[in-house]
Design a protein that fits this description.
Helix content: 25-40%
Structural class: alpha/beta
Mean pLDDT: 95
Number of helices: 11
Low-confidence stretches: 1-9
Number of domains: 1
Distance between the termini: 30 Å
Largest sheet: 8 strands, parallel, barrel
Radius of gyration: 18 Å
């Protein structure tokens, strides 16, 4: 008689990686960031096999060079990342596509299958200056949904990539209310979600609940934790996201929330192939700080079964 495999004993279909973000990299070129060669060396040394591209232009944008540099370190690329302001409607399409196409082409060339799409900030991530209203109008919500679907269709048709939209602090897709509104307004066959556990907690959301409610929409994960004490101060003071990160609002697991083991268990129950990419926002940070954290985090995630 055949023996059934219990869900808890199945091999994990979650592939863990890290990203330049965990090395304090937010921009293509910044003197406070570690050189890209050091990032690649250290992310491999920490025990990761998968990475994201990070801000376009930080890692080499020539596919042959990047393939050589990642390959000799035993690294593979899981996704590229783009920022978009699609709630502005068709008027920004050409500019958006010009930005997206180069990144999508490099992502495809690295044999990755995902494009993480982050909505534009309503206040500047460096200065905290308010750029536009924090609340979208009904018309802007309509633009956001239809233009995201258009982007997903074009990226899929031209580059074979799957779009995963990333809810993010200080953007218009942030809280549970706004995330669910966006999901309900978009085609599940076109648009999936990159659930960032830290950003969702930062904005008051419950990652396990979201996975259990909208599991079919979860296409990608970012693993991150928030320091509750710092977050309470950030909320009380109305601190913008950039300065909040400088205060240490995103912390090393397992010191913060949400607990990642229940999140990973809920994701595993989806019985889907998922990437879970570690991102601990630390801009700016001491260049010697990321590697020890990355080693400890990889060990902690192994203890969670991935």
């Amino acid at each position: 008689m055949a023996t059934q495999t219990s869900p808890t004993s199945r091999p994990s279909r979650i592939r863990v990686g890290s990203a330049p973000d965990s090395w304090g990299v937010w921009f293509p070129d910044d003197p406070r960031q570690v050189p890209w060669q050091r990032f690649l060396d250290e992310v491999a040394e920490a025990g990761y096999e998968w990475i994201e591209l990070g801000p376009y232009g930080y890692l080499p944008s020539d596919p042959r060079t990047l393939a050589e540099e990642t390959g000799r370190r035993g690294l593979k690329v899981s996704a590229g990342t783009v920022f978009t302001g699609l709630h502005h409607g068709p008027a920004v399409w050409e500019k958006t596509w010009e930005h997206v196409a180069s990144i999508a082409a490099l992502t495809q060339a690295m044999d990755a299958r995902h494009l993480v799409v982050i909505p534009s900030f309503w206040r500047d991530d460096k200065t905290g200056q308010v750029i536009e209203d924090a609340t979208l109008t009904a018309e802007q919500w309509g633009h956001l949904a239809t233009q995201t679907e258009r982007l997903a269709r074009e990226v899929g048709d031209r580059y074979g990539l799957r779009v995963a939209v990333h809810p993010h602090a200080d953007t218009h897709i942030d809280t549970e209310e706004n995330v669910t509104r966006f999901l309900d307004a978009t085609d599940p066959d076109l648009v999936s979600l990159c659930l960032d556990t830290g950003h969702y907690a930062y904005c008051g959301g419950d990652s396990v609940k979201l996975i259990e409610t909208y599991g079919e929409r979860i296409g990608y994960l970012h693993l991150k934790q928030v320091d509750p004490a710092v977050l309470a101060d950030v909320r009380a003071q109305g601190t913008p996201f950039g300065p909040a990160v400088a205060q240490g609002v995103m912390c090393e697991p397992p010191r913060g929330v949400p607990e990642l083991e229940p999140v990973l268990a809920a994701a595993a129950r989806l019985d889907a192939d998922l990437f879970a990419i570690v991102e601990q926002d630390m801009y700016p940070c001491d260049p010697d700080r990321p590697l020890p954290i990355a080693r400890r985090t990889r060990g902690y995630l192994r203890s969670c079964g991935v």
